[in-house]
Write a structure and sequence with these properties.
Helix content of chain A: 40-55%
Oligomer: heterodimer
Order of helices and strands of chain B: HEHEHEHEEEHEEHEEEE
Strand content of chain A: 5-15%
Number of strands of chain B: 12
Bound molecules: iron/sulfur cluster
Largest interface: A-B, 66 and 48 residues
Structural class of chain B: alpha/beta
Strand content of chain B: 25-35%
Shape of chain B: globular
Largest sheet of chain B: 6 strands, parallel
Strand order of the largest sheet of chain A: 1-10-7-4-2-3
Shape of chain A: elongated
Helix content of chain B: 25-40%
Number of helices of chain B: 6
Number of strands of chain A: 18
């Protein structure tokens, strides 16, 4: 990671205005969004949008041709190009032909993508942004930090400073007054502008219409008052049919600003009348800028389903800490990382792709059904396969790929690390990342790993067998969780087997883009776990369960190891996470939890992979309540704890405040215990409380339940 | 034609949603009754024959029926809408084609530039709505509007707003600060 990137991250995190504004906004957003979607079946709606948009993306050429025919029939001039330079040259030509001296713009990300303002100004044309946020940014000489709220990082005091300079008058920071000043200032610009430039939120092929969505009313003035109107349309804006605007208009305002509809929507089809009775000179520029390439890429074509609502930013635990500027480009956040990688270059996303925690929040709310974390992983994979892994990574992964060596190193680490142990906590997650070389971060490796302890557990004779997949953390750091699990499953009538050949699930390699390593891990585990006939393969680590159920298959497919797919599928079908299995066993009457005791208040932390990939959240809660705990839900219970595998090591400046927030939310419930289903989260949250000296007990559900069995 | 009970129900739904976003909504039985309320409203707001105080009325069936009446005798009320007049108008009056009950939205074919000027430049926009043109939602609307015939279709949902400074909701940026809807039962719904 580059040094200046690191420093921009820590600057952002320490910018209290920014993190305060974004934090407050994201908290309110969640509630407001839910309200805005009341009575609407979001899943069906986004299914429709994804289907309609992906249809358009798969037929971009046809969409563009149809649009052009229809828009031209209505009297518009349509110009289509792949090249941003040609877009700018075209606009300048139109401006020159019409003797344009000043331009007013309504918000257009496409125009920012090609840095149009600079270009026009260098050519002697005055350009005024008219969206209030964009105008503020323009006056400040900055880039927007959010695609819907460009100036969210600024205070009213800063805005009043800017406006005071602009209007030559000492203004207070009274917001309504500042807005009034903007209204008056910009009104005169509207009235004297010769050209209006807009973007488009939707372009309808069937009718040649463009649809503009705003709250302030600036787009109406931009498209009405000047004689010439130029609309820059990124070709991902296409829908095929006029009726397709309905789902997009239903989702866009609700997702963007939690409104049922914005104040204004304008549907423009061909030139309308100018204020002097002449017809408007309407130019529509269909801008490709690599969108066609994107549409041809199996993995990234879904990005064209994006309707630019910005909700993925609003729910992102990282974005709300760092804001948009650290992304260094026009498009920000997770989706911005993807767009930057394509519209600029893959290499430019090298640092920013590392910001993603893979928590999956964005994927949950995206009205275009984009799998943002998956596309970010793909960027990682491509970067690694282009440039190769770093030397450190290479040596580490070569260790991980050799199970025996890897495990013996971990054992050694447990001894070497002794002097650094404090209260039995691992300060850092050590495993197999660059930091493996820093042995000092390996202190709390258990003295005896689960794989050795397992041999000593005396199990009652049982007919039915179940395989336990421990994963590295339980195996080498938290063997007691494994023992608790064996105890519970014995009670349910299983004999637990622990195939010693099992190894790392491959997630660390995968999340670092080293897919070949992950594929080898997958194969080793498939061999180990399918050797004996068992009823289930159970794991108490959600990341491992995701690997068993989904990632092995995916990795083998990408790495073209198809000969393993059938067995991987068999393994996937048998794999189950701990809480889901236990809930099932309790429901089937195979397991009895001692009832009738009061164990006091508990709160539950949802781990990202369990909640959003495996869709498990009720099972552990029900089990804990059955065991006698009184559940007291924390605020943002399913927000990431900041662990994200090696993330807490690579970007501690982000991971730490995310954790702090989590600890605060836990404490505010007043519960003495916080439960979770992921050993990684236990590591992060227990470590946090340890450092703080807090009194909250942090436990894996498996440990709490093992004590409560009849 | 929509049945009265349905119409009342749609009107109430529209009104609730429209009011939720700051629209002022009133209902009248006849155009004449609407006019009787409109005139004192214009006077109260201070419409006068001076820059900044004009009222501009963009042509529509109701407005045309009022043209010869008392409305035209108020100083500062104009029935031709120019760019200059609209820019100096306190009030703009237009007649909309539809309303959507689920979002509190007005829909109007604004291909004629007077309609855009009168509804976007003045400080107050007064919209005349035929109660019987209220539709449940966008789905019901989409087959009734045709972009091939209407070059500029406007959806208006409440007054102009922003939250670009510190996320504080502020009304009236570039468009009207107030949106007043006069829903008239009698008016025939004009389709686009
Ligand atoms: S997966 Fe999480 S961290 Fe990554 S972009 Fe989405 S919300 Fe942000
Ligand atoms: S990726 Fe999804 S959530 Fe993010 S801006 Fe696009 S449509 Fe909205």
């Amino acid at each position: 990671m580059k040094k200046d990137f690191k420093s921009s991250v820590s600057k952002a995190v320490h910018n209290a205005t920014l993190t305060g504004a974004l934090g407050k906004f994201s908290e309110a957003y969640k509630v407001n969004r839910q309200k805005a979607y009341e009575g609407i079946d979001f899943e069906t709606l986004r299914e429709t949008i994804a289907e309609r948009k992906s249809y358009a993306a798969a037929h971009l050429d046809l969409m563009a041709q149809t649009f052009q025919i229809n828009a031209e029939a209505a009297g518009a001039k349509v110009f289509r190009t792949n090249d941003p330079e040609e877009v700018k040259a075209y606009i300048l030509k139109v401006a020159r032909e019409n003797d344009v001296k000043s331009v007013v713009k309504s918000k257009s990300m496409a125009s920012e993508e090609i840095h149009l303002n600079d270009y026009l100004e260098k050519n002697g044309i005055e350009v005024g942004e008219t969206d209030l946020g964009e105008w503020i940014i323009q006056l400040a000489g900055q880039k927007p930090s959010h695609m819907v709220m460009p100036a969210i990082h600024m205070t009213k005091e800063e805005v009043s400073e800017l406006f005071s300079k602009e209007v030559n008058e000492r203004l207070t920071s009274d917001i309504p007054r500042l807005v009034e000043v903007a209204r008056n200032e910009l009104r005169s610009k509207f009235l004297r502008a010769d050209m209006g430039i807009s973007g488009a939120n939707i372009a309808v092929a069937e009718t040649g219409s463009i649809v503009l969505v705003t709250n302030e009313g600036n787009a109406r003035l931009v498209t009405t008052l000047p004689r010439v109107h130029v609309a820059i349309v990124g070709i991902e804006k296409f829908v095929e049919k006029f009726e397709d605007v309905v789902p997009v208009l239903t989702a866009l305002p609700r997702s963007a600003t939690a409104q049922l509809l914005t104040s204004y929507v304008s549907i423009i089809t061909g030139p309308a009348q100018n204020t002097d009775g002449s017809m408007k000179d309407l130019h529509i520029i269909l801008m490709d800028n690599r969108r066609t390439d994107m549409a041809a890429d199996d993995k990234f074509k879904q990005a064209l389903q994006c309707i630019r609502c910005g909700s993925c930013l609003n729910v992102c635990p990282v974005f709300r800490l760092v804001g948009g500027h650290v992304f260094g480009s026009v498009y920000t956040g997770g989706i911005g990382t993807i767009l930057t990688a394509w519209f600029e270059e893959m290499q430019k996303s090298e640092d920013i792709q590392g910001l993603c925690l893979q928590c999956g929040n964005c994927k949950e709310v995206c009205p275009g059904k984009l799998d943002i974390p998956d596309m970010i992983l793909e960027i990682r994979r491509r970067l690694v396969s282009q440039k190769g892994q770093t030397l450190v990574q290479k040596s580490i992964f070569s260790v991980v790929n050799n199970r025996k060596l890897f495990h013996s190193m971990l054992r050694t680490a447990s001894l070497a690390g002794k002097p650094f142990t404090s209260g039995g906590f691992i300060r850092h997650l050590p495993f197999f990342l660059s930091e493996l070389t820093e042995m000092r971060s390996l202190p709390a490796i258990a003295a005896e790993p689960f794989r050795d302890r397992f041999e000593k557990i005396a199990q009652p004779k049982q007919k039915e067998k179940i395989a336990f997949y421990a994963g590295c953390l339980i195996d080498f750091a938290y063997p007691e969780m494994g023992e608790a699990l064996v105890k519970i499953l014995n009670k349910a009538g299983f004999e637990v087997i622990f195939p010693q050949e099992q190894t790392c699930c491959g997630a660390p390699a995968l999340y670092n883009g080293a897919w070949d390593v992950a594929a080898q891990n997958a194969i080793d585990n498939i061999k180990a776990l399918t050797a004996t006939d068992v009823s289930y393969v159970v794991s108490a680590c959600p990341t491992c369960t995701v690997a068993l159920k989904h990632e092995f298959l995916k990795t083998l497919d990408v790495e073209k190891k198809t000969e393993w797919v059938a067995q991987a599928q068999k393994l996937a079908d048998k794999s189950i996470d701990f809480s889901t299995l236990v809930k099932k066993l309790v429901d089937d009457g195979r397991l009895n939890i001692a009832e009738g005791v009061e164990l006091g208040k508990i709160t539950y932390h949802d781990s990202c992979h369990l909640k959003r990939t495996l869709r498990v959240s009720e099972q552990p809660r029900e089990l804990l309540q059955k065991a006698g705990f009184e559940l007291s839900e924390m605020f943002e219970c399913d927000m990431c704890c900041g662990m994200g595998g090696s993330y807490s090591l690579k970007l501690p400046e982000i991971s730490a405040p995310i954790l702090e927030r989590k600890l605060k939310n836990i404490k505010e419930t007043g519960a003495g215990t916080v439960a979770m289903d992921c050993p990684g989260c236990v590591l992060q949250i227990r470590g946090g409380f340890d450092k703080e000296g807090g009194k909250v007990t942090v436990k894996h559900t498996v440990e709490l339940l093992a004590e409560r069995l009849k | 034609m929509t049945k009265t009970a349905d119409l009342d129900e749609l009107y109430e739904r529209y009104k609730t949603k429209a009011q939720a976003v700051g629209t002022e909504v009133y209902r009248f039985g006849t155009r004449y009754e609407a006019l009787e309320s409109l005139i004192p409203l214009l006077k109260k707001e201070g419409v006068a024959d001076s820059a900044g105080a004009f009222a501009v009325c963009a042509a529509g069936p109701a407005i045309r029926s009022w043209e010869g009446a008392e409305l035209s005798t108020i100083p500062g009320v104009h029935f031709e809408v120019t760019r200059e007049l609209a820019a100096e108008a306190l009030i703009g009056i237009t007649e909309v084609d539809f309303a959507l009950a689920d979002t509190g939205t007005l829909v109007q074919d604004q291909s004629a530039v007077e309609q855009r000027l009168a509804s976007s430049l003045p400080t107050i926009h007064i919209a005349i709505l035929g109660t019987n043109t209220i539709l449940p939602d966008k789905g019901a609307l989409i087959t009734r509007i045709n972009p091939r015939k209407s070059r500029f279709i406007a959806f208006i949902t409440g007054p102009s707003r922003t939250a670009d400074i510190e996320r504080v909701l502020t009304i009236g940026v570039h468009g009207p600060k107030r949106l007043i809807v006069l829903a008239v039962d009698e008016s025939e719904g004009e389709t686009l």
